[in-house]
Amino acid sequence: MLRFLTGGESHGEALSAILDGMPAGLKIDTKAIDEELARRKKGYGRGERMKIEADRVKLISGLKKGITLGSPLTLIIENKDFSIERLPEITRPRPGHADLAGALKYEYKDIRNVLERASARETAARVAVGAICKIFLSEFRIEILSHVIMIGNVEAHTGDLSFEQIKEKNIKSSISCADEAAEKIMLEEIDKAKDAGESLGGSFEVILKNVPAGLGSYLQWDRRLDTAFAGAIMSIPGIKAVEIGNGIDVSRRLGSKSHDEIFFEKERGYFRKTNYAGGIEGGLSNGEDIILRGYMKPISTLKKPLNSVDILTKEPVKAQVERADVCAVPSAGFIAEAMSAYVISNSILDKFGGDSIFEIKRGFDSYVEAIKK
Ligand code: EPS
Q1: Which of 94, 320, 325, 334 to mutate to test the pocket of ligand 1 (most atoms within 8 A of CB)?
Q2: Which of 105, 122, 203, 267 is close enough to 295 for a disulfide, judged by CB 3.0 to 4.6 Å?
Q3: What is the C-alpha to C-alpha distance for residues 232 and 235, in angstroms, rounded to an integer?
Q4: Ligand 1 atom nearest 46 alpha carbon
């Protein structure tokens, strides 16, 4: 099984991650990891820090001649803004951030001790881990993409677009939105929020393509695939809700309008004409695209700050203003891709085991052939 932990503070020397359990024999191109890191920095509405950081990964263990050894992979991303020892103390907690509860929990007089680790900067390490998982998944033809479906209350309409069309349109979009008309309004809303000292949330969708039926399990609550996806997406800073398929919508409909009827063709095997379930039934992948949505609250650092209380004087004050993003929904989508890549990689290892990529592929390929019949 895969496991990973990250280390690092937002303005510390570096971010790091150890990814354990990646099988031997996988070719890792660090350029592909750097490309994913560059995508995470992207997005209209991101803050000044994104221009400072280069976000290049260094792999210092687990590889020889670019091929995995099956031993733990250690990843390092250096911070250019390595200023943690010089930064001023903070005593005015921001509503919505970990500031107050973190200071109480660890008995800190300086909130910087909290925000240095609670910062979403940590997600760069996760994206690097996810990029390695994506390389693993490419061996099984599994692809993942995310796209923005809402910024503030502006919704994108992409229901009739294919995976490939969304992918193509996303490349041209500065906020990973595949609906050009909606994107235009979203960009205006981000500008308006910025001018008003405000921030904006929204939602993104993650699509996983070519996932075979039968990953995950209904045998135990913690083996269900939806359990793992919901937790993984919810763990991204700022996410307050996760939806699988049309989960929210179907809860309002009749049963006959909520489930995906089953069909079979010799060439295709089993298939559905709808995908309300988002590719997961009974905690198992069902062979359709897996569709996940994450809902993100607006960034909690506001240029026009909310009311707070100074933790030293207990006097009413305005909350701390830090350098921050106005909107980070596209980045949250990329981070969710990484977390989803990790979840589905783990479910493949759970089902097929194996110590080398060759062994896992043999099991995977013969299973995929068998379930078509
Ligand atoms: C981030 C780096 C941070 C923030 C942002 C995300 O850098 P700095 O604090 O130096 O500007 O821009 O952090 C948050 C959204 C947050 O809530 O802390 C990054 O690399 O993604």
Answers
A1: 325
A2: 203
A3: 5
A4: 12
In the reported structure, the alpha carbon of residue 303 is separated from the centroid of ligand 1 by a whole-number distance in angstroms of 14
With a 6 A CB cut-off, is 91 part of the ligand 1 pocket? Answer: no
Q: Give whole-number Cα distances, 214 to 35, 263, 332, in Å.
A: 31, 17, 28
- Closest ligand 1 atom to Cα of 324: 12
In angstroms, what is the C-alpha Rg of the chain? 22
- Given a contact cutoff of 8 angstroms between Cβ atoms, the answer to whether 202 and 150 are in contact is yes
Reported as type and span, the H/E element at residue 46 is none
Report which ligand 1 atom has the smallest distance to the Cα of 53. 20
Which 3-state string (H, E, C) describes 158-209? CCCCCHHHHHHHHHHCCCCCCCHHHHHHHHHHHHHHHHCCCCCCEEEEEEEE
d(CA 225, CA 344): 8
Ligand 1 centroid to residue 65 C-alpha, Å = 34
Q: How many Å apart are CA 288 and CA 155, to the nearest integer?
A: 24
pLDDT in tens, the chain (373 residues): 999 999 999 999 999 999 999 999 999 999 999 999 999 999 999 999 999 999 999 999 999 999 999 999 999 999 999 999 999 999 999 999 999 999 999 999 999 999 999 999 999 999 999 999 999 999 999 999 999 999 999 999 999 999 999 999 999 999 999 999 999 999 999 999 999 999 999 999 999 999 999 999 999 999 999 999 999 999 999 999 999 999 999 999 999 999 999 999 998 889 999 999 999 999 999 999 999 999 999 999 999 999 999 999 999 999 999 999 999 999 999 999 999 999 999 999 999 999 999 999 999 999 999 998 7
H/E segment holding residue 19: strand 14-20
Question: Is the beta carbon of 49 within 6 A of some atom in ligand 1?
Answer: yes
